[in-house]
Amino acid sequence: MQLCQDRGWPLRCFSAADLQTIPVPNPSPVVAQVVGTPSVAEAAAIAAAATPNTPASLRVSKQVIRHPDYAGAVTLAIAAAEQEYTGRQGHLWLVGTGPGSLDQITPAAKAAISRADAVVGYRLYMDLIQPLLRPGQLIEAMPITQEQQRAERAIELSRWGLSVAVISSGDCGIYAMAGLVLETLQAQGWDGHSPMVESIPGISALQSAAARVGAPLMHDFCAISLSDLLTPWPVIETRLRAAAEADFVVALYNPKSQQRTEQIAIAQRIFAQHRPPRTPVALVRAAYRADEQITITTVQAMLDHPIDMLTTVLIGNRSTQLYAGKLITPRGYRV
Ligand code: SAH
């Protein structure tokens, strides 16, 4: 231990019970009898160099080294690890950057982005946070379709001992990267500590959209994504019906893309069945960005206006009023 401390070498210890399960080229029955495992050096080298996904390869098999002036011997074996050892604890910061303007990002999120060794995210959001990046950071901008690859890449970098900020717009835990990263870690048998994972919340689209148009989310509300990429459409339709019937104020995320145009029309029909035709609806596009566009309309007329992937659709409940251009959902209901 002293030697390792003096030289700044990492020291890891393994129990005989751990070592005896590892197959090695040169097991010894004599050693097994004395210390309870047939291999110490080779098994420990393999155990130390292995990572959850990649086994280690033994490069130098057991060597017994003796010194004429001392009794006893040192046994040594060398294994190659897939990853360089940095001696640092990796961090994954799951960061939400809000709707898109720099002053809607929390100070904690800004700090995480500036401190991170590596920043991983979707290209559009990276452009938005460009002023927060600093020279020397590893920046990995990827197309929106490569979410799984982004999660895996971020984990890979953190396992190397880096602090990695994974960027999502809005909140990282709402239709975003946080779940994907945690699921991937889970699949890799993550121990819950290494890398350290911390979520740093951001203002989600439903909050920023609501703030732009009054106080529509004053009472019970829910969010439904119309994207059937990861969720079967019948499940989405069931939720739309349930929310419409139960009179939730609803925020629709991912309402319409160039390929997906039918879903929003079906959603409109469902809400038209359960709410008065003049129920206020807000279409908030690119909230807090330079190209922000806000349309106040009704359940009846909402499809007459442009809706796209940058839009959040807020549908009032049966009590939501429109006053002075603002949606107001009463805070409570008197009976
Ligand atoms: N994690 C994000 C949601 C990503 S899903 C969040 O918490 O906000 C992408 C959807 O979010 C878009 O299709 C759109 O419906 C909504 N959205 C994201 N940014 C927006 C913005 N600035 N204005 C309006 N809607 C936005």
Walk me through the structure:
This protein has three domains: 2-79, no CATH class; 91-203, Tetrapyrrole methylase, N-terminal domain (Cobalt-precorrin-4 Transmethylase, domain 1, 3-Layer(aba) Sandwich), CATH 3.40.1010.10; 206-328, Tetrapyrrole methylase, C-terminal domain (Methyltransferase, Cobalt-precorrin-4 Transmethylase, Domain 2, 2-Layer Sandwich), CATH 3.30.950.10. 30% of the residues lie in helices and 23% in strands. It has helices spanning 2-7, 16-19, 29-35, 41-49, 107-115, 123-128, 147-159, 177-187, 205-212, 233-245, 262-274, and strands at residues 57-65, 74-80, 91-96, 118-122, 138-142, 163-168, 196-200, 214-215, 221-225, 249-253, 280-285, 293-298, 311-315, 321-323, 326-328. The strands form four sheets. Strands 5-4-6-3-7 form a five-stranded parallel sheet, sandwiched between helices. It has a five-stranded mixed sheet with strand order 9-10-13-11-12, sandwiched between helices. The longest helix has 13 residues, at 147-159. The model has no long low-confidence stretch (mean pLDDT 93). S-adenosyl-L-homocysteine binds at residues 99-100, 168-171, 174-176, 204-205, 209, 253-255, 284-289, 309-312.
